[in-house]
């Protein structure tokens, strides 16, 4: 497998991709992700991807070693760390705006996660099964947000809004865990007993705002 810096520009043979090659490569990625909405990563075959993409397995192998490598390539462009999301974490949450900032942060996080739902779901399952490549991709995706959240945790602690007994980075990781789970399963909530995705977002926003020192 080619390294991250090279594989979008060249094929498996080291040949630079032209416009047609880039379109073919992207088509294989798009088809793979679409098929993974109804297939497991281990169940999806190169032959099925190639057939659905209206090309051959031989062509597939010009660009990727296998289906797993396609998903890893897709993850290069599935970025949670969008500027509008990170900008919210640059603001002071220890004010009366803290709850509104938390709600906007949770909503934006869930929206970005929904955009890449299939590839994130496959990544997380593979990571939890012990694949080090997907685990590394998961950690790499979470690190910028986690670091920014840790800064907000420390700010809340300095302001006397949060106990200093909590480890800042661990607290940030717990928030990310909450958001990942909310994004993954919240949209499927049935609405029984008044429990909806919106009420889950609202409760999560209040919890995060409280931890991050909202006045």
Look at the structure and name the CATH superfamily of the largest domain: Tetracycline Repressor, domain 2
The number of domains is: 2
Tell the overall outline. elongated
For the record, give the distance between the C-alpha atoms at the N and C termini, rounded to a whole number: 50 Å
| SS summary, helix count | 10
Could you give a short account of the major beta sheet? none
CATH topology of the largest domain: Tetracycline Repressor, domain 2
- Report mean pLDDT, rounded to a whole number: 92
Order of helices and strands: HHHHHHHHHH
Content-based structural category:
mainly alpha
User: Strand percentage, roughly?
Assistant: under 5%
Fraction of helical residues: 55-70%
Rg, alpha carbons? 20 Å
- List how many beta strands DSSP finds: 0
- Named at the architecture level, the CATH assignment of the largest domain is Orthogonal Bundle
Task: Give the C-level CATH assignment of the largest domain.
Answer: Mainly Alpha
């Amino acid at each position: 497998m080619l390294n991250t810096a090279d594989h979008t520009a060249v094929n498996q043979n080291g040949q630079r991709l032209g416009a047609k090659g880039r379109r073919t490569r992207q088509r294989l990625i798009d088809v793979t992700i679409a098929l993974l909405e109804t297939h497991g990563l281990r169940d999806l075959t190169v032959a099925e991807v190639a057939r659905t993409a209206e090309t051959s397995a031989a062509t597939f192998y010009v660009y990727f070693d296998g289906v797993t490598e396609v998903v890893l390539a897709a993850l290069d462009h599935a970025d949670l760390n969008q500027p509008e999301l990170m900008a919210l974490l640059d603001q002071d949450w220890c004010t009366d705006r803290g709850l509104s900032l938390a709600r906007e942060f949770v909503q934006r996080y869930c929206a970005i996660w929904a955009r890449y739902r299939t590839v994130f779901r496959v990544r997380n399952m593979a990571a939890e099964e012990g694949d080090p490549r997907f685990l590394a991709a998961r950690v790499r995706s979470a690190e910028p947000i986690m670091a920014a959240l840790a800064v907000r945790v420390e700010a809340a602690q300095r302001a006397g809004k949060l106990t200093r007994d909590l480890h800042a980075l661990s607290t940030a990781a717990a928030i990310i865990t909450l958001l990942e789970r909310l994004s993954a399963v919240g949209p499927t909530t049935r609405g029984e007993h008044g429990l909806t995705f919106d009420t889950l977002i609202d409760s999560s926003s209040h919890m995060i705002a409280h931890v991050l020192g909202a006045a």
